[in-house]
Specification:
Elements (H helix, E strand, L loop, with lengths): L5 H10 L2 H7 L5 E3 L2 E4 L12 E4 L4 E4 L5 E2 L1 H22 L8 H10 L1
């Protein structure tokens, strides 16, 4: 698989709004001072917003599970899950469309 050039990755990090990317995935962001906050989609039991998105730096960090990064990392995590779910469904002959990101994360961390 070809490696994406660093220049292309840096361009994506500059040009793609992380807040819009997260909201497009159905996650509700709320204002918290100059930053935005949401419930972390990567771990269960997040009853309060522990994931902080900084529009200024275009970075995110969850204080509950310590996940974080750029829009590229966020998109790779979401799309990796979606691709994995589709692959497993196809290979097993079943459909796991209702499988949540939290369930996938729990399964992945218990392996």
């Amino acid at each position: 698989m070809a490696r994406i050039p660093d220049e292309a990755l840096e361009c994506l990090k500059r040009e793609v709004s992380l807040a819009r990317l997260i909201e497009a995935q159905g996650v509700k962001l709320i204002s918290q001072g100059k930053d935005l906050a949401c419930r972390c989609p990567w771990h269960e039991g997040d009853d309060t917003p522990s994931c902080i998105v900084s529009p200024k730096t275009n970075l995110w960090h969850c204080f509950g599970c310590d996940a974080g990064g750029s829009c590229v990392i966020h998109a790779m995590s979401v799309h990796c899950f979606t691709a994995c779910r589709s692959s497993v469904s196809r290979d097993a002959g079943h459909r796991f469309h209702a499988m949540s990101v939290q369930h996938f994360t729990a399964c992945r961390s218990s392996s």
